[in-house]
Amino acid sequence: FLQRIESKLDDIENTNDIEEENEDLFQEENQPINYELLLEIKESLKNSKYNNNILRIIWKTILTVSNENDDKIVEKLVVALHKFVTSHLIDFPLIEISIQLQKLLNKLYLPTVEESIEIFNEFINHTCFKPLFYRLLLHPGVTEKQIEDFMFPISQLAEQIPNIELVIFFDEVNTSSCLGLFKEMFIDGTLHGINVPKNIFFTAAINPLINLNNDFQVHRRDYIVHELPQSLDNLKVSYGILDSNTLTDYIKQKISRFTVTSTRNTQTQMPLELYVQEMLTQSILQAQEFCEIHLGIIFFLLKLFEDNRN
């Protein structure tokens, strides 16, 4: 193992390209053990100094060498990795795994060497954390069933991590036709009579209630809002309108997250060029100012971002 890994570590220290690995690496047998290298690897693993690419190379080399020498050792290693990954998923419910890793772990037979290498790679490179903040944009077409479906996995996660608070943000809640359901969740702490986990914190935003006259038709349907139930109305806090500087900063931050596909590589996403970001920011600000002046009410053109959010 040490004979093979030494040259590989030297090769990958300064490169991220690990796809083309030289498996035809042979060293003379019965070479003295390089205890200095062994100690270096041990300390680096202990102190998390290696990146994911190096870890993958180490695991692949361990399995490859073991497979050439002792099938029983390989079996123990494969089983140990499988148990390690599955136990972590149980002990740390915030871990979110890839679909491919889920398929590999669900297989009924003992993983092969190749599958074990893939399990390791999927676990360290494609595992992320589940969010603690959730947002649902509401409109008159959202049904109670859709809200239930939205709440179900969040409630399940909340029950698994009772000491961590999850935040759910309902945007434009007073455009919804399900205000009674929100009253039940916010005030009673239940959803159709079933208790909502205590570690779920609800917050919401509402559109201003504006009485439109019959002469005003532009986008009228988009801005019809309902009066809140009295119990919810008492929870309102008005933060006023964003000042121009704050609004500009917000728009810039949102636009900076936009990406386009590279013309050289269709798999690569790149941010918009700075001059495009600035032009788009000014266009949105000017459009909003036009609507405020000429249409008589505040139009939140930031809704333009809803179809482009990540």
What would you say about this model in short?
This protein has 310 residues and is mostly helical. The chain is built from eleven helices and nine strands. The chain has a three-stranded parallel beta sheet. Strands 1-2 form a two-stranded antiparallel ribbon. It has a two-stranded antiparallel sheet with strand order 5-6.
Sheet bearing the most strands, described? 3 strands, parallel
Count the strands? 9
Which regions are unreliable across 5 or more consecutive residues at pLDDT < 50?
Answer: 16-28, 216-222, 297-310
What is the tally of helical segments? 11
Mean pLDDT across residues: 82
Q: Into which percentage range does the β-strand content fall? A: 5-15%
Helix/strand-derived category reads mainly alpha
Radius of gyration, in Å, reads 28 Å
Euclidean distance between termini CA atoms? 44 Å
- Number of domain units: 3
Tertiary shape: elongated
How would you portray this structure in words?
The protein has helices at residues 2-12, 35-46, 52-69, 71-91, 99-105, 113-125, 144-160, 179-188, 230-233, 244-256, 274-294, and strands spanning 95-96, 128-129, 133-137, 166-171, 190-191, 194-195, 200-204, 259-261, 269-271. The protein has 310 residues and is mainly α. The protein has three domains: 2-128, no CATH class; 131-240, no CATH class; 241-310, no CATH class. The chain has a three-stranded parallel sheet with strand order 3-4-7.
